[in-house]
Design a protein that fits this description.
By secondary structure, the protein is mostly helical. The protein has one domain. The chain contains 21 helices and no strands. Helix 4 runs antiparallel to helix 9. The longest helix is centred in the middle third of the chain and has 35 residues. It is globular and about 75 Å long. The N and C termini lie far apart (49 Å).
């Protein structure tokens, strides 16, 4: 059987299982078991599958995943988010679209704490949308910034999805986490520029309002009390890696300890909150580890059958420059993002795309960061982006899904523009890991 026929059979079986509602992890498990039996010499192949599953989850590089998830749960349940928004509110001046800008700033702050796009969007919606509605903000300018900035949790450390992508693609987790910092900040800046320019051109989208004066002393006090500890946590997670003092796993452990201490110091740590955080962390971690086992075995089956090699040979023989092949792969990811969630897309495409990227002589970290930005877009891409439904659920009564879709579109355009910049200037991604290495 040639590699193309094998690939069609494997993918056809996988997509069929997903189409009839089988959870993605179990769909991969079924395909992997059958594929191992038929392509890996019967029972010997099943034994190899078990070893592959064991090896894929007993790796030191995956330890940051539960720690990052735990950090988000602690910050989400301890009530620190509301205090941080008050600090941010006191420092933002009379910018056009002030509350929308605050949504982006809050989304960036929460991204350094939660690592979850859905949790960040839910928090921002509950904290800001009622006030935006009261101030007369248009739905596109109240929901859109929250949709865009909620997804920043995927592109700013600590990001559990970034760790998973690095682990599945077999690239350095520490280098990948520091590589996503500049793209994440660049995306947030693009959102702010769009909001300010759009609201200056069309002031009716975000009517101006009088602000109560907050004394400088009070602002400085609240910043030191609630903002400075956040800086310490960010330094524990990112700064230690950047300085080369700690590995990604050690930084994640230090960040989780810092979140425990913060929750205790602000009076949010209690037995019920701790149990809920641990249970939620366990559930998310088990789900992610199951996905990794399926993806790893899937990529090995593709390699053993010759499907991966055939795809690489076909891609490298096309009369296209490497950058246009990358553009084509990103276009495929965008289309998939309209109908699938990021983890499923990553499982399907990483075993296929990364061997091609390496064969083309491109940087896997550069491609991985661009792919992660694409996964961020997938959370708000109509019609089935997960964050779209989160925001719709907490939006004011009468908000239609069509309004949510329209609010997301300008921010999808902003992210696409950032993706183009990152493709044109790879040093924005690769220079930071190189600096850390030096």
């Amino acid at each position: 059987m040639d590699w193309a026929t094998t690939l069609v059979i494997i993918f056809g079986a996988l997509l069929t299982l997903m189409a009839i509602g089988v959870p993605i992890a179990f769909a991969f498990l079924a395909v992997n078991v059958v594929g191992a039996y038929f392509f890996w010499n019967g029972s010997a192949g099943l034994g190899q599958l078990v070893m592959s599953v064991y090896d894929s989850v007993t790796t030191f590089a995956l330890l940051p995943v539960p720690l990052f998830v735990l950090m988000g749960e602690l910050m989400f349940r301890s009530g620190i988010a509301g205090r941080l928004m008050d600090v941010l509110d006191s420092w933002i001046g009379r910018l056009p679209g002030r509350l929308a800008v605050m949504a982006v700033g809050g989304g960036t702050l929460f991204a350094t704490l939660t690592g979850s796009a859905m949790a960040g969007a839910a928090m921002l919606s509950s904290l800001l949308v009622p006030e935006m509605e009261r101030r007369g903000y248009h739905r596109s300018m109240s929901l859109g910034p929250i949709l865009g900035s909620g997804g920043l949790a995927i592109l700013i450390p600590p990001s559990a999805l970034a760790v998973l992508l690095a682990a599945i693609a077999n690239i350095s987790v520490g280098d990948f986490l520091v590589a996503i910092i500049v793209p994440g900040v660049l995306t947030a800046v693009a959102f702010v520029v769009y909001i300010v320019v759009r609201c200056r051109i069309s002031p009716h989208l975000a009517p101006a309002y009088d602000l109560p004066r907050v004394p400088l002393g009070l602002r400085l006090r609240n910043t030191l009390l609630y903002g400075l500890p956040l800086v310490v946590v960010v330094f524990l997670v990112v700064g230690l890696m950047f300085l080369g003092v700690a590995t990604a796993t050690e930084s994640a452990a230090a960040g989780a300890l810092g979140c425990f201490l913060l929750s205790w110091a602000y009076g949010g740590l209690n037995r019920r909150m701790l149990v809920d955080s641990m249970q939620a962390t366990l559930g998310v971690t088990v789900m992610m580890l199951m996905i990794i086992t399926g993806s790893t075995a899937f990529s090995q089956i593709l390699a053993f059958t010759g499907a991966s090699g055939g795809l690489v040979e076909m891609a490298t023989s096309l009369p296209l420059s490497p950058i246009w092949l990358v553009v084509a792969m990103q276009a495929v990811l965008m289309v998939m993002g309209c109908f699938m969630e990021p983890l499923s897309i990553m499982m399907l495409t990483i075993p296929i795309f990364f061997p091609i990227v390496k064969a083309l002589g491109l940087s896997p970290i550069w491609f991985g960061v661009i792919m992660l930005l694409n996964m961020e877009m997938a959370t708000i891409t109509p019609p089935f982006g997960l964050v779209l439904f989160v925001v719709k659920a907490v939006a004011p009564a009468g908000t239609t899904l069509t309004q949510v879709y329209r609010a997301a579109l300008p921010f999808i355009v902003c992210e696409t523009a950032v993706m183009g910049v990152l493709m044109a200037f790879p040093a924005l991604i690769t220079s930071v890991p190189a600096l850390v290495a030096r």
